[in-house]
Structure formats: structure tokens, C-alpha cells
Amino acid sequence: MTKVITDEQQIEKVLSRGVETIYPDKDSLKKVLMSGKRIKLYCGFDPTATSLHIGNALNIRKLAKFQELGHEVIFLVGDFTAMIGDPTDKKAARTQLSRNQVLSNCKSWKKQAQNLIKFSGSNPAKLMYNSKWLGKMKFADVLQLASHFSVQQMMERDMFQKRLADEKPVFIHEFMYPLMQGYDSVALDVDLEIGGNDQTFNMLAGRTLMRVLKDKEKFVLTQKLLTDPTGKKMGKTEGNMINLTDTAEDIFGKVMSWTDQMIKIGFEILTDIPLEEIEKMGEAMNKGANPRDFKLQLAYEVVKIYKDADSAEASRDNFIKVFSQGQKPEEINEYRIKVSAGNFSVAGNLINILVETGLASSKSEARRLIEQKGVKSNDVVIEDVNQVLTKGKHLIQKGKRFFVNVIIE
Known about the structure:
This protein is α/β, with parallel strands linked by helices. The chain has 3 domains: 8-223, HUPs (Rossmann fold); 248-324, Orthogonal Bundle (Tyrosyl-Transfer RNA Synthetase); 334-408, Structural Genomics Hypothetical 15.5 Kd Protein In mrcA-pckA Intergenic Region, Chain A, CATH 3.10.290. The protein contains 20 helices and 11 strands. A 6-stranded mixed beta sheet has the order 1-6-5-2-3-4, with helices on both faces. Helix 12 links the parallel strand 5 (192-196) and strand 6 (219-223). The chain starts with 7 loop residues before the first helix and ends with a strand.
């Protein structure tokens, strides 16, 4: 029998650090945890991409904190809900994914998450898939769930209001998403669901269904999100999203690219540094201390947690060498291109090379980088978006810290 820890200080930390809101209230949940009752809780993750990202990691780490207290934790893969697509914060309906795409996306997720949560041992986290129950539901079951919500409730959501104002469509199947996520709570018979504060509506839908269908209280814990000063979440478009499959060097560099205003919240929700120390860092920066020094520490802590201490040390040393001292990395990836007279203009085109080597995610991004004078070849800034590289060796540099040796044969 797993021992449940009822230490008030530990419980208070779990219920406070990085937490925005607890429904119905924090004191009620704290009372349950202090009683010694072993609760069941979960967080769901839709496999819309092959890699888990740092936003997912925040919730995985919170699950792990409850796991350490001795509670039953479920890592739920939304393999069914991912095929529909969560409309939260979306300006247009998500592209629906096939079953094969979803399963392919999540095939390495357990391996990615195992540094953050235990799937073995005396109190292992359970890995489950919501297609087990959602895939078996009949149309009558869906109608029964839908009867507990109104169109007005759904249309009050900000992204739907924005779409209507922009004369963009809102699809009926998008109304179904909160119902499906809500039913996950019923199928799992949980006591608590955790998630980012952007998931509040969906998680409260589950609270409603638990009360109606099971006459049971379900707590909801929402967590703070890592956002830039404008309130925008980390994302692929901004180029600052940290994936758990990123290299240690890339993670370190991405943290260093964050604005200074993100340092304190980053320490709070991404690390285990005591809050008292974080407050002192804030006070020091307010008095003129260089934020870069604290950001270096934040990047080190993030890499240490999501990779390991050795990688954190190496990444910090490499960053200081490349960024601060203007040196080039000791190890630079090499990319060979064999060209012929017929395909030279295509194979040697710099835009194509930036995409092929991963320095740019798309041709449009590559074009933008060149236009902004963010690309060098052999230390010379490239200004022509139609640049074609000649035969030979070229050290291609993006920004101040991304390098690749391109050899055109």
C-alpha cells in the first residue's frame, strides 16, 4: 500500500507554486490531502506533435509532485481528442488528424516524459488513452452529454467571439471538444484534474459532468503559463518553444532568448529554486543587477531538469564561448550536397539549404532571416534572397549561435 504524505508544508508547496486557481477552492482540496486520503488525478495531453513541449512539462512535473505525495497519477494521452482538435485560443479550426498520425505522434512520449515522472517503482504513473472510452461512445451517449451544456455557454468563449467578429466559421464539432475532455474525468472517476489556465473551460466542463453523472466533487487545479510580456504563449511561430526532444544546447539558447520579464516566472514554474531566492533575484534586478546573469542560471536549471547536470554545464560553457566571447562552437554539424549542372540552382540555393539543414523551418522563414541580415556565409552577411552557393565549403551561420558546415560537391 502506497504511503500518503500529509506534511502540511509539502502539500502547501504543491498547491501554491505555479498555481493560478483551484476550484472550488484551495482550502477544500488541502483539507482532503491533509486527511490522508489517496486521491486519483490526471492531466491529458493531445498528441498533435511528435514532441512534448515545455508547457506539457509543467503539468507533468505537477503530476510528479502529487506522485511524490503518494497519490494515484494518470498520464492521459488524448489519442481520440487529438483527432478532433482543441479549439482553445485558436483563430481558426484545427486541422483534423488521422488515427495513424496521432499514434505516430505519441509513440515516444513515454520515453520523453520519464525524466520528469516515474512510470515504474512503488507508485508508478499510469499511461492511458482516451480512445478506450470515447471511441466506443454511441451517438445517443454524445447527445446525452450535450444536453448538459448550452450553445450560449460555448459561444461565450473568447476565440469563438473573435472568429464571429472576423466572420470566420465556428464548427459544430468544436463544441464537442469540452464534452469529450469533460467525459475523460467521468470515465477515469478522478478526484482532481490539472492543466494550464487556458484549459479552465474544458476542465470545468468535466467538473460539471462529474457532478451531474456521478454526484461527485472534482477539483480543478489550473497552472500559470509561461508567456512573454504581451501575454503570448511560447509557440512554434515565435521560434521560442522548447520541445523535450530539443538538444541541451538548443534549450539553453532558447531560454537565453527570452525577455528579461520572463526570468522570475520561469524560475517559479520551471525550476525548484526556492521562492525566497527568486524574490531576491527580482529585487537585485530592480536595483540594477544584470538580468543576463540570472538568465544564465535559469537556462542552466532548465537544462539540468529536462536533460541532466552534465549537459547543463556543457551548454552553459558553450553558450558563453559562442555568444559572449564571439567564438565558434568546437563541434559543428556537417551537411553535404552533391550537385549537377542541371540542379545547381536548386540544390545550391541558400533558402533551400537553410530549410534542409534545419536552420529555418520553412522557406518563408529562411527568406525573412536573409532579409533581416540574420544569415552569414563564411562570416559574410548574405543580403540576396536568391543567393546560390558555389562549390566548396561554407560555414553557414544563423544569428549568433546556430552554425552548420555546408559542403557543396
